[in-house]
Each structure stands twice: as structure tokens, then as C-alpha cells.
């Protein structure tokens, strides 16, 4: 999660909502990183998770991320939760809960929906206070500025 927080801080410095993500392979090696990039790239899919999963897939040479874990500072939205299922990730680990848009247990629970063909394990609220504090700081600065 510390590596994901580093990515989130990069997003913060770039004026993006500070969310960071990493994908780890089965041995724990980082094979993909990402941070929010929607403003700079003008891409609605420019979420940290999507960017990290794309990098991981490129690293592995295929779209299936079986055996891998996604670690992200904020609970994934429906798009990112769905992408986690589609990528066949083994595990989704997140920091801060997102009660407004979270799709890994808060508002929705996409990744554990029994109707889907794959359900990653979920580990929630890892370093949640630290992850949430970065988001709170970002939005406090945004309201002032």
C-alpha cells in the first residue's frame, strides 16, 4: 500500500484526485503502477487501477492477471471493480472506503457478485486513515483555491 500511496501523491502533485494503484504478481513483485490521470489525459478511464492493470497486462504479455493482486488507495468504482473481475485478479486490496462510489462492498459489491464468473478476494481498509487523509487534504485545498 505504501507504493500505491506514493503513486497517489504523484497524482496529488499533478492536480489529479490522489488515487494510486499497483499490481503485484504472485511472487509479490510490482508489475504495474498507476495513478489517476483523467485531467491530463482527458480520458474518462484514466483511473489509477485501470492504468496499473494495463501496465501489468503489458508486463505479462496478456490480459489475464490470474495470480495477481491489485492494491489501490481508494475503494474501486464500478468500472474498476468490473475491470478487476474481467482481468481475473486473485485479490483486490484497498485503503479508504468510498461510500459515494465504492463498488467493492460500500455502495455496490461488484467483485463478490455470485452471478459473475470470477470473484477476487477482497482485503479492505489497509492504511485507510492515511489513504483517506490524502484525499481529504486534496479536496480541502481544492475548495480553498
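Sequence proposed for the structure above (145 residues):
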Amino acid at each position: 500500500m505504501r507504493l500505491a500511496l506514493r503513486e497517489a501523491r504523484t497524482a496529488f502533485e499533478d492536480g489529479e484526485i490522489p488515487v494510486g494503484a499497483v499490481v503485484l504478481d504472485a511472487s509479490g513483485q510490482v508489475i504495474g503502477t498507476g495513478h489517476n490521470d483523467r485531467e491530463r489525459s482527458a480520458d474518462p478511464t484514466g483511473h489509477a487501477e485501470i492504468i496499473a492493470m494495463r501496465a501489468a497486462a503489458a508486463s505479462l504479455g496478456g490480459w489475464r492477471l490470474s495470480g495477481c493482486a491489485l492494491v489501490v488507495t481508494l475503494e474501486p468504482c464500478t468500472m474498476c471493480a468490473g475491470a478487476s473481475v474481467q482481468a481475473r485478479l486473485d485479490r483486490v486490496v484497498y485503503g479508504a472506503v468510498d461510500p459515494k462510489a465504492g463498488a467493492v462492498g460500500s455502495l455496490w459489491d461488484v467483485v463478490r457478485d455470485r452471478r459473475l464468473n470470477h470473484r477476487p478476494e477482497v482485503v479492505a481498509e489497509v492504511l485507510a486513515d492515511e489513504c483517506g487523509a490524502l484525499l481529504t487534504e486534496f479536496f480541502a485545498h481544492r475548495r480553498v483555491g
